[in-house]
What does this fold into?
Amino acid sequence: MFKSISLFSRKKSTRPFKEFYSEWISTLKNTLLPNLRHSISSLSALLSTHMQLIHAHFQLYYETLDSASQYDVAQLLYPLDFRTPIEIPFLWIGDLHPYLFTNLLRSFTQSIADDSKSADEFEFYDEVDEELAVRIEQIECGMRLMVPALAARFRNAQSVLIDKIGENWGNVGGELEIGEAMGAQMEELASVFMDANRLRRNVLAEIMAATDIYKGALFFESLSQFLIGFWDRKLLAEFKGSKNMYQLLNL
It folds into this structure.
């Protein structure tokens, strides 16, 4: 019925996002993260530079996601072809949930405080952590407004799409109306997707502003390792052989 209608793609992409993502992960794993870790362990003067390079790498990632959404947002929202099975449960409107960023920041910050040895060190880190905790709460306060609003827009776009298809399925001339409805709702889904990415980028920028160079570097080290872990071959093999994979795919 729909052979002559491109329901999901409005333009022809010159490069599949899957190819970009594979190269992006490889650069993060083999170049940027090792350089950052070396700078952290040696307290190198290049620490700030290496942290900024990883931040720029993430900015490039979200810019490329936005661009790809103009070609085929459906494959980005339901990315079974380029995401690993372990990665899927952490996705929200096509990518990592922004709360993951603040949770990672809070987690390793607590670790630093727990590892403090002397009373003076503990008092210093306790004071700094209180300031950072306030900033994290402020960041999450903004997310508590944005996340439900974006989720509601996403659900509404899906609902309208389903209703339009149901109304016109099998009707004479319905093919054209379904195609028009699909096009309009794909526009809205792409808009929601890009707004969600804007929120993710903003949260990363706010974390950069809220932390000093050392803690900012530790945050990007944690986030990078988290993403790279999705591609661990041993973990993937164990996951694919377990019942968890089938439970997730059948949700």
Observations:
- Residues 41 and 47 are 10 Å apart (CA to CA).
- The two ends are 29 Å apart (CA to CA).
- The beta strands are 91-92, 95-96.
- The longest helix spans residues 119-168.
